[in-house]
Amino acid sequence: MNSLIYLAFGSVDIRNEALYSILSYYQQVPTPQPETQILVYTDDATAFRQVLGDRPAIQYPTVASEQWQTWRGAANKVYLLKIGVLEHAAAHYPGNLLFLDTDTIWRQSPTPLFAAIEAGQFFMHQNEGRLITGNTLSRKVYRHLRGHQWEVGSKAFRVTPETELFNSGVIALRSDKAYLLREVMTLAEQLYATYNKHMMEQLAFSLRFAVEGPIIDVPAFLWHYWNLKEARPAITRAFATYAGQGSDELLRRLHQLNLPALHEQELAYRNLTGWQRTLRKLTGRRWQLPALEV
């Protein structure tokens, strides 16, 4: 069985991001795939059914309220919830697991990805390059972590000049490899204890999966607009206004927000050198999210 896995816990904005992603999946895969299901880990399944109806291919696993806190680990980080969700999915829905963040839009069918997962391939969303030569935060993390060593089981992990960081907006593995997730959690907790930055979770995945072999990234399959949190109210307005007009019209309106292009524009600005950004600010050309009409 193939499982697309979403974690949509908390705010209405997060739920609507997940709904947008699911609708974009059905646009790419309009014919039902009997071997593929969608697992939505949420505290409000009713909100999803109101938009999606009762589709047999979509399941809403029941999670006890105290379990959510346990999944945050010793570091008490929301980023670690996805490890617990993946472990739960591996135990209850064995097969090929493809977890993705809610702020994603499908560009093509994930069928080839599931075939590669079945063959033993590990996927994450995007290779962000080596820490030592990455963006400002990556370089800062490298400077703080170099020279440290973390023991997990029988393995020792270090950050070296060759260490690559993968974005964890997508995490894919076969369920019989789920034992690795405990090691990812242990490593992440140690990394957070060493340097308390949000990206320690994805660094833990990157370090542990790399031991198993190459990690492949998947930007050609979907957009991940992780840098557009300010766009969430517009997505929610689109659902409030058009959800009753059918999924085709709702999806058309959501696509009109043009989030992939805005993601690239903001990312280009973010990747400018410090003096270039300062000059833009001084001359009134700082990048800002435009008013989004729905």
Q: Explain this structure to me?
A:
45% of the residues lie in helices and 19% in strands. With 294 residues, the chain is an alpha/beta fold. The chain folds into two domains: 223 residues, Spore Coat Polysaccharide Biosynthesis Protein SpsA, Chain A, CATH 3.90.550; 54 residues, no CATH class. Helix 1 crosses helix 9, helix 4 runs antiparallel to helix 7 and helix 9 packs antiparallel against helix 10. It is globular. This is Nucleotide-diphospho-sugar transferase domain-containing protein.
Keywords:
294 residues; alpha/beta; Spore Coat Polysaccharide Biosynthesis Protein SpsA, Chain A; 2 domains; seven-stranded mixed β-sheet; two-stranded antiparallel sheet; 12 helices; globular
Topology:
Elements (H helix, E strand, L loop, with lengths): L1 E7 L3 H17 L7 E7 L2 H8 L5 E2 L5 H6 L10 H12 L3 E5 L3 E3 L4 H8 L3 E9 L5 H10 L4 E3 L2 E3 L6 E11 L4 H16 L5 H13 L2 E3 L4 E3 L7 H11 L4 H9 L3 H12 L3 H9 L12
Parallel strand pairs: 1-2, 1-4, 2-3, 6-10
Antiparallel strand pairs: 4-9, 5-11, 6-9, 7-8
